[in-house]
Write a structure and sequence with these properties.
The structure holds two protein chains of two kinds. By secondary structure, chain A is of the alpha/beta class. Chain A has two domains: 206 residues, HUPs (Rossmann fold, 3-Layer(aba) Sandwich), CATH 3.40.50; 39 residues, no CATH class. Chain A contains seven helices and eleven strands. In chain A, α2 links the parallel β4 and β5. Chain B folds into three domains: 219 residues, FAD/NAD(P)-binding domain; 103 residues, D-Amino Acid Oxidase, Chain A, domain 2 (2-Layer Sandwich), CATH 3.30.9.90; 60 residues. In chain B, β10 and β11 form a beta hairpin. In chain B, α9 packs antiparallel against α10 and α13 packs across α14. The longest helix of chain B has 21 residues. Classes of the chains: A alpha/beta, B alpha/beta.
């Protein structure tokens, strides 16, 4: 942990309609702003942010890039205990940037820095519920020039240290000591957003929500052709074993001996590239 | 542990608050609650409007017609801004028996023009719109919050509500319970007499998607014109009825089933509904539609004689919580009665707050009696019993279909039978005595006349 004092913990909340309906004929996505809100993962991110801010004696701010109806979501964040909120404005639902996450991250990083200050920790859901790729947190880490730890299932702050647990394939977990400043994305697990008290809920109903213009240069997306995704069929013969248990073991790959993952920690990009190349050569890819 | 509303919950005794947080608390942001909050806020009172759903309209089940005349008083020019699916220009009453049906069909293009008569709407949109007016007038909407208990002084005066939020007590000079059918708040205040199950029905509804053009063609309408079909004889002997309403690109088709009759029949409501959708008169209307929603809700259909006391000490009850739904056969109305009762509750509460005398809350009942709300209910107090009676439910649809089939079946070379003879034969075939028929006709005439 680079510093024990954490002045600003930001929870990034994506305003999304988890029950969006897709027209089976046109492919058009029908959304309803009334039922929209943060995803479960974003709600967990807010709870983590509130807990870490309390533990570290810092400020917690909730930020979103969304149109005006999303202010209800920010009011809920205020009611739950966020010290500040910020809405980065986009005129409508559709005008949210359908990009790789880079443009969104740029707009958010700019708004956070100019309106709230340099963040010590930014927390967000691992990916949005609507077509999310989960790439925005990574782009945001690059924008802010800080560390990233993505797809976390546990996050705790104690004795000035931020510890995280990350889900890996095949049921394994990875423990991380996350240096600050950092961007962390969390899965919807482990914590549940607290229920706001009535007095703070009433206060939040009357609160002014700060809004800044979204400095987003949306890159227009043009679809030249659209066709259904039909991956080529791949033949997978069943395991030869007669015993169902053995077939199951074969299919799941349980109990197979595997080489444990080698964790490489290096700040030198050239060294990291060499490691990667060596690994690929060792596996016969190069 | 979170406090929850429920049949076992009871009022909490508290000390008289020195400074209540609000002038009034309205529980429930449905049509009654929002109308009450709007009246109170317009009069300059501070109002908290509690809503259990994440937004007004999130929790309701509705497939019906909103008759907007009361909105002329509440929101002048409402029809230019209200979220409407279709304006009802065609109204049908259908009697079903086996594979037969007899329909009375009325159309008026006047109903498709301002000032209009009634409209289908999605309540998620309608309730949000009405609550928005209350908010603009100054009411504070508190969503995702359930009022679990009444707060009462030792003398029994209601001074607020407890909610399911931490530090969730909220105090006010007046509480208006618009918490819907089976109101736990009205029950906690001891305003409900006895068992409500006898007078409560279960409404089940499917929302079926069809292209707007298909709906236009099947129902003989165009643009934003719509059709309202009320049905009798489609509930397999369970007291109740059916309905089909056109929205812009969906249909609401469903049933209203008496709770005790449904339990006694041992049938699932969705099975009864599936059977209705297979009827030769209904099947062509819903063919090929995509099911997008199935929902169910209780409906207070007992009418005037089953209403609770409407005024308590510091408490008013309005809307479905006060059993204001009018289920009188040819008239099936609820939202307009809810809005009317809510508006008058808000008006009476406002007057009491201005005078500082909570005894003025009694004016609520006077206002209701002098308006359509209780006048209609009082006049039609025998109608629900008649409509849900065994003869009307199980014998008259067959009698009418037999009679009409006899009239229009050509049996040459036999001469046409007289209507009186046909009526007697149909009545006998369906186990109806002419004396009973005359008595029911007289009751109907007294109720509806």
């Amino acid at each position: 942990m680079a510093e024990s004092l954490m002045p600003l913990i930001v929870a990034l909340l994506r305003w999304t309609d988890a029950r969006a309906r897709i027209d089976p004929l046109s492919g058009e996505v029908e959304t309803d702003p009334r039922g929209a809100g943060p995803s479960e993962a974003d709600r967990c991110a807010l709870e983590h942010a509130l807990r870490i801010a309390e533990a570290a004696g810092g400020r917690c701010a909730a930020v979103t890039l969304a149109p005006e109806p999303a202010e209800e979501m920010l009011r809920d964040a205020l009611a739950c205990g966020a010290d500040a909120v910020l809405r980065v404005d986009v005129p409508s639902w559709d005008s949210r940037v359908p990009d790789s996450g880079a443009t969104t991250a740029r707009a958010l990083a700019h708004a956070i820095r100019t309106e709230l200050g340099e963040p010590s920790l930014v927390l967000t859901g691992d990916h949005s519920a609507d077509r999310g790729t989960g790439s925005t947190p990574a782009f945001l880490a690059a924008e802010l020039g800080c560390a990233q730890a993505l797809g976390l299932v546990e996050l705790s702050y104690a004795d000035g240290e931020l510890l995280a647990l990350r889900r890996l394939d095949r049921g394994r977990r990875e423990r991380l000591a996350v240096p600050l400043p950092a961007v962390c994305s969390v899965e919807p697990a482990g914590v549940r957003l607290r229920r706001a008290a009535l007095p703070s809920t009433l206060a939040a109903r009357r609160a002014e929500i700060p809004v800044v213009a979204g400095a987003v240069a949306a890159e227009p997306v043009t679809a030249h052709a659209a066709r259904p995704f039909r991956p080529r069929a791949k033949e997978l013969p069943p395991p030869p074993e007669a015993d169902p248990r053995l077939r199951l073991l074969r299919l799941t790959g349980a109990h197979e001996h595997r080489e444990p993952p080698r964790v490489v920690v290096t700040d030198d990009p050239a060294e990291a590239a060499d490691e990667l190349l060596e690994y690929l050569r060792g596996k016969g890819y190069l | 542990m979170r406090d929850r509303a429920g049949p076992a919950s009871s009022a909490v005794t508290v000390a008289e608050p020195e400074r209540p947080q609000f002038d009034a608390i309205v529980v429930g942001a449905g049509p009654a609650g929002s109308a009450a909050a709007l009246e109170l806020a317009r009069a300059g009172n501070s109002v908290a409007l509690l809503e259990r759903g994440p937004f007004p309209g999130a929790k309701n089940v509705y497939g019906g017609v909103v008759y907007g005349r009361i909105l002329d008083e509440l929101i002048p020019g409402w029809y230019d801004e209200m979220p409407v699916q279709r304006w009802i220009t065609r109204r049908q009453t259908m009697l079903l028996d086996g594979e037969r049906s007899m329909t009375v069909d009325f159309r008026s293009q006047n109903w498709g023009r301002a000032p209009y008569n009634g409209a289908t709407t999605y309540r998620a949109e309608f309730d949000d719109w009405l609550a928005g007016h209350a908010q603009k007038a100054g009411a504070v909407l508190v969503p995702s919050t359930v009022a679990t208990r009444l707060l009462c002084t030792e003398r029994g005066r209601v001074v607020g509500v407890r909610t399911d939020r931490p530090d969730g007590d909220l105090t006010a000079k007046v509480v208006i319970a618009c918490d819907g059918v089976n109101s736990f708040l009205a029950k906690q205040a001891g305003l409900f007499p006895g068992d409500q199950a006898e007078h409560t029905t279960l409404g089940v509804k499917e929302t079926l998607a069809l292209p707007a053009r298909t709906i236009d063609e099947r129902f003989g309408v165009s643009g934003h014109e719509g059709v309202d079909i009320e049905m009798l004889g489609c509930t397999q002997g369970i007291p109740g009825g059916g309905f089909l309403y056109t929205n812009y690109d969906t249909l609401s088709v469903g049933l209203v089933l008496g709770l005790k009759g449904l339990a006694k029949a041992g049938k699932r409501p969705e099975e009864v509904l599936a059977e209705l959708k297979r009827h030769p008169s209904i099947q062509p209307l819903v063919r090929g539609a995509e099911l997008v929603e199935y929902s169910a809700h209780l409906i207070p259909e007992g009418g005037y004689d089953t209403m609770p006391q409407l005024v308590g000490d510091g408490l008013l009850v309005a809307g479905d919580a006060a059993a204001m739904c009018l289920a009188a056969g040819i008239w099936l109305e609820g939202v307009n009665f809810a809005m009317g009762s809510g508006m008058y509750a808000g008006r009476a509460a406002s007057k009491a707050l201005t005078s500082g005398d909570l005894g003025d809350l009694r004016a609520y009942r006077t206002l209701l009696e002098s308006s359509f709300v209780l006048a209609d209910h009082k006049k039609l107090r025998k109608a629900p019993e008649l409509v849900l009676s065994e003869r009307v439910q199980q014998r008259y649809p067959g009698l009418v279909c037999d009679l009409v089939e006899g009239m229009f079946t050509v049996e040459n070379p036999r001469p046409k039978p007289g209507v009186r003879k046909l009526l007697r034969a149909s009545a006998k075939r369906n186990g109806v005595k002419m004396r009973e028929l005359a008595r029911d006709a007289l009751t109907g005439l007294r109720s509806f006349g």
